[in-house]
Every structure is written in structure tokens, then in C-alpha cells.
Amino acid sequence: MKEKSILNVPLLPPSWKKLGYVFIPLPVFLVIGLAFVNPQMDPNEASQIIYGFWAIGFGILNLTREKVEDEMIKSFRQQAFQTGFYWLILGLATLMLINYVRFDRFTSEIFTAYLVLFLLNAYIYGAFQYQKYLSSKSEN
Amino acid sequence: MKNTIKVERAKKDMTQQDLAEKVQVSRQTINSIEAGKYVPSTVLALKISKVFGVALEEIFELEEND
């Protein structure tokens, strides 16, 4: 594949990982702060803020390259995106089924773009880290 | 696919890190290839065989389940 192909995904420098990690605890403090300022805040709004920040955080982590971005890491990354998408579809189908059994309908207020993006990015990140862990488990 | 990278490294007194630097990958990648957990691309396999100065098929060998 040529480097300039539109299929080529440019990755962020490794230093961006720190920013990605900052986005994980940040919304928790933000929501606590907002709750103090506005005690009548809708809890659904708070959860959407958290999902949104986590989606961005995991998105940054997924699009940040490793120190050595060699062919094995690239292959892990591709596999992680595929696995993450599979888990997302499976997870959403399960949530829909649970919703149907409990409330007699498939749709739910919890299915927001923020939640789906967060789950997708979290699954991709988990799959990528798991592959790296497996590859380093039996170090010679 | 099995390989004899570990043996070839021992013959040349090379560490995984030395080989990794020569073929421009991480040491973890060399470790995974040696352990049979990762099958390298043709380009990387050719680079490895070039470093050892032996034919590709002398290092990499197909197994029955491949």
C-alpha cells in the first residue's frame, strides 16, 4: 500500500498518549464539579459527559503510534479495530436483547453516539493491549 | 510456521536486540517470531535471512497445519 493512499491512517506522535490518559479521569472530576455548581443536573447528562470524554480519550490512545511502530504492531492494530467492532456489535445486540426482555422494546435512551463511540474505542484499546500482553507474555 | 532464528542468532552470537536493530523492528517482534506467535511478512523474512546470509527456506519451514 502506497504511503499517500487515502487508506493510510496518519498516527499521532507517542507523546499524545499522556493527553489520552488525562481524558480518562478528567470527566469524573468535571461532573463532580458541575454537580456542586448545579445540584439539579440531570444524571443522564453527567453520564453523557463522561462517555464523551472517554470516547475522545480512548480515541486518542487508539490513534497514537507506539515507540516502534513495526509490522507486528500494525498487524495488532488492524486486528484490534476488527475485534473492537465485533465486540461493539455483540455488546449492543446484547444490550438490545436485555432491554427487550426487561422493557419489551429494543431501543433505549442509553444508546447514544457518545456511548457507542466510547464502547468502540474502549474495546479497540482493550484488544490492542491484550495482543501486546500476549506477545510479551513468554519473553525469552 | 517454525523457524531457526534462535539457532542462527546463536551461531552469529547475536542478541534479539541486535537482530531487531538490523531489520528495523522491535525486540518484542523478534521474540514473537522466534516463539512462533507471529509470522513475519515476506519482506521481513527476507531481511532476516539476509542478515544471517542463508536462504529463506533454511530459516522458515512450513508445518503440517499451515
TrEMBL record, chain A:
Q: Which residues cross the membrane?
A: 20-37, 49-64, 85-103, 109-128
* Keyword set includes Transmembrane: yes
The lineage's top-level taxon is Bacteria
What UniProt keywords are attached to this protein's entry? Membrane, Transmembrane, Transmembrane helix
- The answer to keyword Membrane applying to this record is yes
Q: What protein name is recorded for this chain? A: Uncharacterized protein
The lineage is:
Bacteria, Pseudomonadati, Bacteroidota, Cytophagia, Cytophagales
UniProtKB/TrEMBL annotation, chain B:
Keywords of the record, alphabetical order, are: DNA-binding
Taxonomically, the superkingdom here is Bacteria
Q: Which CDD domains match?
A: HTH_XRE (cd00093)
HTH cro/C1-type domain: from which residue to which, for each copy?
5-59
The protein's GO terms of the molecular function aspect are:
DNA binding
Q: Which InterPro entries match?
A: Cro/C1-type_HTH (IPR001387), Lambda_DNA-bd_dom_sf (IPR010982)
What is this protein's record name? Answer: Putative transcriptional regulator
